[in-house]
Specification:
It is built from ten helices and nine strands. With about 290 residues, the protein is an alpha/beta fold. It has one domain: Divalent-metal-dependent TIM barrel enzymes (TIM Barrel), CATH 3.20.20. It has a nine-stranded parallel beta sheet with strand order 3-2-1-9-8-7-6-5-4. Helix 4 runs parallel beside helix 5 and helix 8 packs across helix 9. The longest helix is centred in the middle third of the chain and has 22 residues. The radius of gyration is 18 Å and the shape is globular. The site of zinc ion (ZN) has 4 residues, from loops. The site of zinc ion has 4 residues, from loops.
Length: about 290
């Protein structure tokens, strides 16, 4: 297992972690200044500054991406809605390509309309069919331009509104169905916040192997958790044994970045951005 205690060369910052404090161009500058070599930006943050502008800034800073957030949200209650989702995913693939991302992360969606508070139906099996079909269609395009897709299983508390793929096993079943040869075009993003509780986690990470393990996201699970979305903890402040999970990832052949992804309305988003990045660096060394 790699020793992270001496430096932070394998630290990446998911830019949602400081999204409240800074726009993306400033985040790139602040990360570069601290020797952080990779980020994973969100589409709205890129759009706010401009895609080509961000691509140039990344090149100038010599900064890599650890992923691009995000595609997905496939289920819809109408044919037109499903088509719009595919169009949007195609644009996300193109943006990821322009930014030279190693993968486009997919948060696949749940019941159509649920994220806006108005679920169109209660048929989660139908939503999962939409997800499978949506990934299949997006994969055909992503393959043609050489952009890997990473399915991110989300904690089951998000099954209704954000993702009806909720375990690593379920995500890998999709990978095996849609990319049986494990070509590298389709894999998973393992976020400890979503999967730490899963009794099958170690076995499923081993099953995935290096070809399917495309991203590793870290933060911590706070006790108590006060908000379902925006109360993620800094690594070391909660109950996830992150080094153990990283060990399983590396045993399976993963050798990429540990990407810090913290949504924290009542704590980290209220602090000065530099303090947050410095904490990410320190905890990457001591708790990842
Ligand atoms: Zn994540």
């Amino acid at each position: 297992m790699r020793d992270f205690s001496r430096d932070h060369r394998w630290l990446a910052i998911n830019t949602a972690t400081v999204r409240v404090q800074w726009p993306l161009d400033r985040i790139i500058d602040e990360c570069a200044r601290r020797g952080i070599r990779a980020i994973s930006p969100w589409r709205d943050q890129v759009a706010a500054i401009g895609l080509d502008n961000i691509a140039k800034r990344l090149r100038d800073a010599g900064m890599a991406l650890s992923g691009y957030c995000r595609g997905g949200m496939f289920p819809a209650s109408t044919t037109e809605g499903r088509r719009r989702a595919l169009d949007d995913n195609r644009r996300a693939v193109d943006e990821a390509k322009t930014l030279n991302a190693p993968c486009l992360v997919l948060v696949v969606g749940g019941l159509p309309g649920a994220l806006d508070g108005a679920p169109a139906h209660k048929d989660i099996a139908a939503a999962r069919t939409d997800v499978r079909d949506g990934i299949a269609a997006t994969l055909a395009y992503a393959r043609s331009v050489g952009m890997p897709l990473a399915i991110e299983p989300l904690h089951p508390m998000y099954a209704a509104d954000r993702a009806c793929v909720n375990t690593l096993e379920q995500a890998l079943d999709l990978c095996d169905a849609l990319d049986p040869q494990a070509s590298g075009a389709l894999g998973v993003a393992v976020d400890v916040y979503h999967v730490w509780w899963d009794p099958k986690l170690q076995a499923q990470i081993a099953r995935a192997g290096a070809r399917r393990l495309l991203a590793f996201h870290v933060c911590d699970w706070l006790v108590p958790t006060r908000d379902l979305l925006n109360d993620r903890g800094m690594m070391g402040d909660g109950v996830i044994d992150i080094p153990r999970i990283r060990g399983w990832m590396e045993e399976a052949g993963f050798a990429g970045y540990s990407e810090v992804e913290i949504f924290s309305a009542e704590n980290w988003w209220k602090r000065e951005g530099g303090e947050v990045l410095d904490a990410c660096i320190a905890r990457h060394r001591s708790a990842v």
